[in-house]
């Protein structure tokens, strides 16, 4: 899992540099709203909502904001949200996978296509690039006073494939099928993750020179800024030199 360790570190560093608090909240609010519309406003009977609320707490979202998102989802007159994905090739053939939650798919696909076309990429047929990524459960847990050895043994029993302790945080990777088991194990341990999500992890990475990589990262940044975009995954191998640039 050394490839994922590198990917996870890159995501955190990049997130610390350019992710705005309002954008993070916007994504979580959409997750909450969608979860309520899909399964109701009671987190005890809606596992997806329970997860979204945990992520909101991990991001220090105010309770008032959280409650408004739940109320919005429960409002029958509010716009229905749709989850959709798009795939494309960025500059130099880098694979880019985009996850969206939107109330207007025509607007969303038009925007995504424009971003690709204007920045040296092109949209691809859905499903054509999916094989390049594995879906994994990713849990970030603050270490706090957790006993490392006992904790690692417990989460391994729950299906952890990889456990990394870095910057006083555990990053736990599971197979997609073990995502629910890990959530239950953390609840049993009375451990609240800072974040928990299913992510698309590249099976391999493409390496580019710094100038070429900048073009790809510019496209990714633009896509991520779209209000309908929840997550962007890619198979560009980002080096420390690129991050410094």
Report what the structure shows.
This protein has helices spanning 2-18, 21-39, 47-58, 63-74, 105-118, 148-157, 179-188, 210-225, 240-244; strands at residues 82-89, 95-102, 122-124, 133-142, 160-166, 169-175, 195-202, 229-234. With 245 residues, it is of the alpha+beta class. The chain folds into three domains: 2-74, Arc Repressor Mutant, subunit A (Orthogonal Bundle); 84-131 and 204-244, Alpha-Beta Plaits; 132-202, YebC, transcriptional regulation domain (Alpha-Beta Plaits, 2-Layer Sandwich), CATH 3.30.70.980. The strands form two sheets. A four-stranded antiparallel sheet has the order 3-1-2-8. Helix 2 (21-39) packs antiparallel against helix 3 and helix 2 (21-39) packs parallel to helix 4 (63-74). The model has no long low-confidence stretch (mean pLDDT 90).
């Amino acid at each position: 899992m050394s490839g994922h360790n590198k990917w996870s570190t890159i995501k955190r560093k990049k997130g610390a540099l350019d992710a705005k608090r309002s954008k993070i909240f916007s994504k979580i609010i959409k997750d909450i709203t969608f979860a309520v519309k899909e399964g109701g406003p009671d987190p005890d009977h809606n596992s997806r909502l329970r997860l979204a609320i945990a992520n909101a707490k991990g991001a220090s979202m105010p309770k008032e904001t959280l409650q408004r998102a739940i109320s919005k989802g429960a409002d029958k007159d509010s716009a229905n949200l749709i989850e959709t994905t798009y795939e494309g090739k960025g500059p130099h053939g880098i694979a880019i996978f985009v996850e969206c939650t939107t109330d207007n798919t025509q607007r969303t696909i038009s925007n995504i296509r424009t971003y690709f076309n204007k920045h040296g990429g092109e949209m691809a047929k859905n499903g054509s690039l999916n094989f390049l990524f594995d879906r994994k459960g990713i849990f970030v847990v603050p270490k706090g006073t957790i006993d490392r050895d006992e904790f690692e043994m417990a989460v391994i029993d729950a299906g952890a494939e990889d456990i990394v302790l870095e910057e006083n945080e555990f990053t736990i990777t599971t197979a997609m099928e073990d995502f629910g088991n890990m959530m239950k194990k953390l609840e049993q341990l009375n451990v609240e993750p800072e974040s928990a999500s299913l992510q698309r992890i590249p099976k391999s990475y493409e390496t580019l020179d710094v100038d070429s990589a900048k073009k790809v990262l510019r496209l990714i940044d633009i896509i991520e800024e779209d209000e309908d975009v929840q997550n962007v995954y890619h198979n560009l191998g980002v080096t420390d030199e690129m991050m410094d640039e």
